[in-house]
Specification:
By secondary structure, this protein is mostly helical. 74% of the residues lie in helices and 0% in strands.
Amino acid sequence: MMNILHFFRKNWIRFLVSFLIGVTLVLAYIIIRASSVGAEVWGEIEYYRDGFTLAGFVLLFVGGLSALTNFGAFDIFSYYPNRKRKEDNTKEQYYEYVERKKESRRKYRLFFLPYIIIATIYLIVAVILLLIIASKK
């Protein structure tokens, strides 16, 4: 339990930023939808459901790409074969580059997790709104 609290305290800014991105996406969707429909949509629960779904999937996508980056899936695109080592001015091999990147990533091991947690919360809210809509019909 202490590890979870420590993780939250250490990454509270990432949690806050991802939450605010989600709120911005929900509000932007509702405002755009209201301007396109031309009617009052603030009381319509369907638009909130769609906004929360959009925000959840966007944050899940960002978290997934961040996780792939953290696991080294895009290292091949950032490797520059003529890069020189600072110590002896020789070319750095791809294996050495990957090992150096792994070592630097250990400090930020689970930095993608706040995006995925907040995305899950947004998707749970969307499912709850979907169930409310289904129970009314």
